[in-house]
Amino acid sequence: AVLRVGLTGGIGSGKSSVASRLVQRGAVLIDSDRLAREVVAPGTDGLAEIVAAFSDRVLDADGALDRAALGALVFDDEAARRQLEAITHPRVRARAAELAAGAAPDAIVVNDVPLLVEVGLAPTYHLVVVVQTEVATRLERLTRSRGMSRAEAERRIAAQADDERRRAAADVVLTNDAELADLHGSVDALWHDRLVPYEVNLRQRRA
Ligand code: ATP
């Protein structure tokens, strides 16, 4: 019995920053981006299915997945993107569930899921935490720290759910428009005031 927390927010909102602070406090992190890479690593049946669906044009010279090539194939092709997600999403979810099941009984497990709201996963968590940051600030951070072009950052932001939809699915909203130290303060308060008591409560009810 573990407390499962879903963490989401728009691209560049600060999900990774919140996740690492929660890990510092003692959370166990399940990073969906990492799992998404693992389930299509060389030798996996995930990669084999992708090749069966999209041909070996999506492989690079080493036989690994060529993300840019695959991205170009599914970009602007809704059916292809759905086909790809039908291969990857169930595998990522199964692996995440496996990791959560293997965590200590009193663990607070945080799952960082960029498309949590878009994919309708909110009901699978005890608590959904949304990180919310002004679009202008996200654009600034993405172009400065990630070397992303402004047009690319704008395109990616436009492709995601808007903040209003995310807020509607959220149990907790953390805003990240100020200094990193402020964000850390909000995360620490979330940890002590909500997550730890929730976890204790869960365990008592199950005892
Ligand atoms: P992605 O959706 O791309 O994975 P993310 O939501 O995980 O992004 P982060 O990687 O945490 O976002 O933050 C984006 C960038 O902005 C990082 O370089 C991070 O260090 C920086 N950043 C986050 N919060 C702040 C802040 N309050 N002040 C200044 N920089 C910040």
Automatic annotation (TrEMBL):
GO CC, any one term? cytoplasm
Pathway field of the UniProt record reads: Cofactor biosynthesis; coenzyme A biosynthesis; CoA from (R)-pantothenate: step 5/5
Which GO molecular function entries does the Swiss-Prot or TrEMBL record give? ATP binding; dephospho-CoA kinase activity
Q: Which UniProt keywords apply?
A: ATP-binding, Coenzyme A biosynthesis, Cytoplasm, Kinase, Nucleotide-binding, Transferase
Q: Any transmembrane segments, and where?
A: none
The processes (GO biological process) annotated in the record are: coenzyme A biosynthetic process
- EC number(s) per entry: 2.7.1.24
| Chain residues that bind ATP | G12, S13, G14, K15, S16, S17
Q: Where does this protein reside within or beyond the cell?
A: Cytoplasm
Please tell me where this protein is predominantly located: cytoplasm
What chemistry does it catalyse, as a reaction equation? Answer: 3'-dephospho-CoA + ATP = ADP + CoA + H(+)
User: What does the UniProt function comment say about this protein?
Assistant: Catalyzes the phosphorylation of the 3'-hydroxyl group of dephosphocoenzyme A to form coenzyme A.
Family per UniProt?
A: In the N-terminal section; belongs to the CoaE family.
This protein is called Dephospho-CoA kinase
Residues included from the entire protein: 7 to 213 of 400
